[in-house]
Amino acid sequence: MGNVDVKKIIIAVVLILILGIGIFFAVKAITSSGKSYSVETIKDSEYKYFLVYSNEKYGVLNEKGEMIIENIYKEIIIPNPTKAVFICKKENNETEVLNDKKEKIFTEFKKVEAIQIEETNSHLPYEKSVLKYEESGKYGLIDFEGKIVAKPVYQDLTSVKYKEGEILAKKDSRYGVISSKGKVLIPFEYEEIIGDRYYNNGYQKSGYIVKTETDDGYKYGYINYKWKKMLDMEYTGINRLTDIEGDDIYLAVAKNGQYGLIKNKKQEIDFGYQSITYDKDSNTLIVRQK
Questions:
Q1: In 3D, which of 242, 206, 205, 236 has the Cα closest to residue 221?
Q2: 7-29 burial by CB neighbour count: b if 16+ within 10 A, else e?
Q3: CA distances from 201 to 23, 155, 206, 275 (A)
Q4: CB 3.0–4.6 Å: which of 35, 38, 111, 276 could bond 134 by disulfide?
Q5: For 263-281, how does the pLDDT look when each residue is reduced to its tens digit (9 = 90+)?
Q6: Strand partners, 218
């Protein structure tokens, strides 16, 4: 075992606990049209494993403060601190995945990586129920038991911004979205897919702005949070007015450089404006003409 700087261990554990404060354990099921998955958040008291940094190397402590992975690695990722799955990078950049007994796991897969999540309300930076793996230059998903969730048929797998539990998948040079259970949520038809940033106690009701290339340039459409297409690919720009709370979806949409407003599927303001925004303090729509 490498020499351990106790002070650095204590600081690392305290920082991790602080980061965990305010996170509560829950599994929220999201279901629509037979498609479902769960998003897990973790309370600090549920943490079992902690990253520790000492002598310019990383190791892992368990909840008893015991060093279960020696501090000999250049980098260690703990995707889910309740699961004994540690992705350890050596100085030569080779990666191995270990459990709490220092045993190599998932060795049947060429390469296993955590999926980093972006712009969500999670305090943990990785998907907590799935990992991606590589086979013959393509990617698939496995769970934390090593069970294949999605076969390696994708050119890439990353997170959907603002949508934890959903994976942005690239197939045949087009993007779609699959769930953490491997279910296709949005078909592979788009050049780009992003969450619309609507936040209401989480991003669960955030929809998707989708983009594709046409002979007339890029066009945008909209898919709601139940994965139903709401607007066809006929707009040159779409922006959700995220400060308007409630179940109704307000979208500032552009055609030929002119903006209008759509509420759900209905045109509320005709095209003819340079921009349309919303002021939450005055509860007022602000339209700007050239």
A1: 236
A2: eebeebbeebeeebeebeeeeee
A3: 13, 33, 11, 28
A4: 111
A5: 999 999 999 999 999 999 9
A6: 213
Helical (H) or strand (E) element with 234: strand 229-235
Partnered with residue 126 across adjacent β-strands are: 116
pLDDT digits (tens, 9 = 90+) for 191-237: 999 999 999 888 889 999 999 999 999 999 999 999 999 999 999 99
Torsion of CA 76, 78, 84, 90, to 10 degrees: -10
Q: If you search the block for the tokens 């890029």, which residue do you land on?
A: 218
- What is the Cα gyration radius of the chain? 22
CA pseudo-torsion sign 80, 83, 85, 91: positive
The whole model's pTM is what?
Answer: 0.83
How far apart are the C-alpha atoms of 114 and 87, rounded to whole Å?
Answer: 8
Residue 284 to residues 196, 279, 280: CA-CA distances in angstroms? 20, 5, 7
Using alpha carbons, list the distances in angstroms from residue 198 to 4, 13, 32, 163, 264: 45, 33, 19, 10, 14
